[in-house]
Design a protein that fits this description.
The complex is a heterodimer. Chain A is mainly α. Chain A contains 8 helices and no strands. The chains are: A mainly alpha, B alpha+beta.
């Protein structure tokens, strides 16, 4: 039976959705440092959202939702990692702990970073956007896309890396500018 | 492994700046999924030693996330931009459909954020609708069908004495929300959420829902598999949220002090319903009044384990089985027996079931069709499982009789049919008894005595018991019995050795013979032509079946029940 414990009343539901949607981006970023790829993030996010909803009646609204949800997400991520513990490309516990801890400390600045990146992205021209769209379209792995480009795979990869570097630089400037005003 | 150690100062962040471009490359490869194991090790070392690399990783992840969200939104929009809606040209990117009430000017700026939000909202809404819709639909169904609501099943009851209203709780019973007071013995409660709780008498447990219970006193041990994560157990002044684990709780009713011992996994303890204390494997908590202290160590052996209970159950089951086997030897030579099936198979595919009467009349052996061998009342005892419409045991009983007693041990798994067969004769001719369970849970015993001059007029003697099967006692072993004799005309029905109905049919005429002929257990071989309810297969298991040629007295049936009951 899929009955959740301690049923939250419907008005809580709206609150939950609002909070969750507001923090979803941060949670995803947080999770990506913990798991292997974005598919894993999707999986863990799904579990996290359900667990968070089931436990929402236990959430104290006066406390930090992100910290609360991140604790759940971290636990779900660990579960997920345990399942694939044979996979060598998962960071070890010590590093996961460090990353999780610091990601939480930096939640706000990472959010500002994300919004700055969004602004920078809009400044790109349409050809650049198309390229990024191609590289990061859902359901494909970056190296597969690059491989499809055949001989120019290396060039494709380098182009994307350069754009990424430019975007990160742009975001940094953007954040500095915002901090200054 | 790496050589990144030059002068690093550990996690604090002193890094070799020369490493950063290399780190950037490795992070890029890690993100793209193309990193080699050797490089991955190198990256791990850098991450461990250098906070700057970790910051880079977080920023790269952030970027990647923004890029992916953006690309996925654009892709969604492309797939979405459908029938008849004009493309928004000249925006230099995938066309964007405006949101209702949103001008095209602001749209371009916000579109990916809004879409990500809208998409996640949709996902959440559908998840939520499922949860709420599911709950709603479920409760509506239950209200319509039954007024009480189960939360758990008693899967093991050993040596138990119950102090609450329902002292007859047994293995297989469904438990509703409410109090379980166990004076002594052990009871294993499996919640519908998947959590398993083992209580050890003397203990009081209050079940709130499939997801929640309160331990008022005594010792309980809880095991929570992943689907039941979030299971709540309350002790006085303390809430325990299970994050997938095994733990024990002991509540002393005198001073309401309580102890929590985590044997495996993790438990969130909320003493006084406020602070959150995370208890990991091997950790424990002692609480008395407002005082909360860590336990110096956990004592798993103080709590009865599921495995130990299994062992005790097995020992007891063996003892019960042995007692039954001895008793069986005695009764099999009872000359009043017409047929006796103890249901003990010799080989896996044995399809003949032996008539266990001593001396044995092999003409009354039965033939298994479809039905499969399964575990009976005890792990070492066989039973036949009837599930599919074809499953049955065929037998033939010659002779004419003045009286009868039918007994069987049956575990009903569901009452799927209007009539669910125990023993039916092929057809339904004069003097033939039919023994079945109606869909609403009553026992039904009848004998056909058609009026030969008016064959369209039903003259059958039919006897119904009150409802004896409901959802809470389905799935456990019961002994059913009926006695009838053609002198008194009285039909008496029994469940677990207790009389549940007694009556004489108004259509009774003294002295009419009882015959069987070809008949079957668990099904109806030859339904009458055009019968409205021809399909009557039993959904359940049968363990031990007997027909006597006299109507046994209630006392004797009670003895038979006591000698053959599972616990």
């Amino acid at each position: 039976m899929s009955t959740p414990p301690a049923p939250a009343p419907p008005e809580h539901y709206e609150t939950f959705v609002r909070l969750f949607v507001h923090h979803e981006g941060r949670l995803r970023g947080f999770l990506r440092t913990l798991v292997r790829d974005w598919d894993d993030v999707d999986e863990v996010m799904q579990e996290t959202s359900l667990v968070a909803w089931r436990k929402f009646s236990q959430f104290d609204p006066d406390t930090n939702f992100m910290a609360w949800a991140a604790a759940i997400a971290r636990f779900e991520a660990l579960k997920h990692l345990r399942k694939q513990s044979r996979d060598r490309l998962v960071f070890n516990d010590e590093i996961l702990d460090l990353l999780a801890e610091e990601s939480l400390e930096e939640v706000d600045s990472l959010e500002r970073h994300r919004s700055a990146l969004g602004k920078c992205l809009e400044k790109l021209d349409s050809r650049q956007k198309e390229l990024l769209q191609l590289a990061y379209q859902p359901g494909v792995k970056f190296h597969e896309v690059a491989a499809q480009a055949g001989k120019s795979a290396q060039a494709f990869y380098k182009t994307i890396q350069r754009m990424r570097a430019a975007l990160l630089q742009c975001a940094e400037k953007q954040m500095q500018a915002e901090a200054a005003t | 492994m790496s050589t990144s150690g030059n002068g690093n100062t550990g996690n604090g962040g002193g890094c070799n700046p020369g490493q950063l471009p290399e780190a950037s490359r490795l992070i890029g490869e890690w993100l793209s999924g193309g990193i080699t194991p050797a490089d991955f090790d190198l990256l791990q070392t850098m991450l461990r030693d250098c906070s700057e690399v970790r910051r880079m990783l977080r920023e790269e992840v952030n970027l990647e996330q923004v890029l992916r969200e953006n690309a996925s939104v654009t892709a969604d929009l492309k797939a979405w931009n459908p029938e008849g809606l004009p493309d928004h040209e000249g925006e230099g990117e995938a066309a964007v459909m405006p949101f209702p009430g949103q001008s095209t000017k602001t749209r371009a700026k916000k579109y990916w954020i809004s879409w990500a939000a809208a998409a996640s909202l949709a996902v959440l809404l559908s998840a939520g609708t499922f949860l709420w819709g599911g709950r709603h639909a479920l409760s509506k169904d239950l209200v319509r069908e039954e007024t009480n609501r189960g939360c758990a099943i008693l899967t093991h009851v050993v040596n138990a004495e119950w102090l609450d209203d329902d002292n007859s709780r047994r293995t297989g019973d469904t438990v509703n929300s409410g109090m379980l007071k166990l004076a002594c013995g052990f009871a294993q409660v499996e919640f519908f959420s998947g959590a398993t709780l083992l209580m050890e008498g003397d203990a009081e447990l209050e079940i709130i829902s499939p997801w929640e219970a309160i331990c008022h006193s005594g010792k309980v041990r809880v095991r929570v598999p992943p689907p039941a994560r979030g299971f709540l157990l309350h002790a006085p002044g303390m809430k325990l949220v299970d994050l997938g684990t095994e733990f024990g709780v002991q509540v002393n009713p005198e001073d309401l002090s309580s102890e929590v011992h985590v044997f495996e996994g993790e438990v969130e303890a909320h003493p006084n319903n406020q602070e959150l204390i995370s208890l990991k494997e091997g950790m424990g908590l002692y609480k008395e009044g407002n005082k909360v202290a860590p336990l110096p160590g956990v004592r798993p052996d103080d709590f009865m384990g599921m495995e130990r209970l299994d062992a005790i159950t097995a020992t007891r089951a063996k003892a019960r089985y042995d007692a039954w086997a001895t008793w069986k030897k005695d009764i099999s030579s009872d000359e009043r027996l017409v047929v006796y099936f103890p249901f003990e198979r010799q080989g896996k595919w044995q399809r003949m079931i032996g008539n266990g009467c001593n001396p044995c009349n092999p003409d009354r052996n039965g033939g298994v069709v479809g039905a499969r061998w399964t575990q009976g009342r005890w792990p070492m005892k066989d039973a036949l499982e009837f599930k599919r419409p074809g499953d049955r045991v065929r037998l033939r009983i010659d002779g004419e009789y003045e009286a009868l007693t039918l007994t069987c041990w049956v575990k009903v798994d569901g009452l799927d049919r209007k009539f669910n067969a125990l023993l039916l004769t092929d057809g339904y001719d004069a003097g033939e008894p039919h023994w079945q369970i109606t869909q609403d849970g009553r026992l039904m015993f009848s004998i056909a005595y058609p009026d030969e001059e008016h064959p369209d007029v039903k003259r059958n003697q039919v006897h119904y018991s009150p409802v004896v099967f409901n959802r809470s006692n389905i799935g456990r072993w019961h002994q059913l019995a009926v006695t009838y004799d053609n002198c008194s005309g009285e039909a008496i029905q029994f469940v677990d050795g207790k009389e549940v109905s007694r009556e004489v049919s108004p259509l009774y005429q003294p002295g009419r013979k009882i015959v069987y002929g070809a008949c079957e257990l668990g099904n109806w071989g030859l339904p009458l032509q055009d019968h409205q309810f021809p399909v009557r297969n039993l959904n359940g298991c049968m363990d031990e079946f007997a027909i006597y040629q006299i109507a046994l007295a209630g006392d004797e049936l009670k003895k038979i029940y006591e000698a053959s009951k599972p616990e």
